[in-house]
Amino acid sequence: MFYLIVFKIQMNGRDVYKKYRKGFSLKTVAMKLDEYGEKMELLKKLVANATTGRPKELAEKLGVSERTVRRLIDRLKMKNSKIEFDRKINSYVFKN
User: Fold this and answer.
1) Where residue 41 sits, what CATH number does that domain have?
2) Cβ atoms within 10 Å, residue 61
3) Quick one: residue 53, left, alpha or beta (phi over 0 = left, psi -120 to 50 = alpha)?
4) What is the pLDDT of residues 51-75, one digit of tens each?
């Protein structure tokens, strides 16, 4: 049998549901959420400084997969951040 544990948390004023397999301790879940917040903050700093590089390089800087980079970028866009990739400088930037 397969069990999931679902947590409802608030992130930036929005309800977010996180799913974890049975067997994860609450300490592990809290650590994963902490890591997510840290990666999101680092992403915001890199974008603000226009030093992200291409998606593959950004994934290496954040220690995640390219797919996770796309998910993080999509989450920023969902939060009304105007973000785009600038091919001239090879970096994601916040658009004014």
Assistant:
1) 1.10.10
2) 15
3) left
4) 999 999 999 999 988 998 998 898 8
Give whole-number Cα distances, 27 to 31, 33, 54, 60, 83, in Å: 6, 10, 34, 26, 33
Backbone angles phi, psi at 9, to 5 degrees: -130, 165
- Please name the residue ranges forming H helices in the chain: 26-48, 55-62, 66-78
Domain that holds residue 69: 4-94
**Cα–Cα distance, 65 to 70 (Å, whole number):** 9
pLDDT confidence bin for 85, thresholds 50/70/90: very high
Number of domains observed in the structure of the chain: 1
Enter the pTM of the model. 0.69
Give the whole-angstrom CA distance, residue 41 versus residue 27: 21
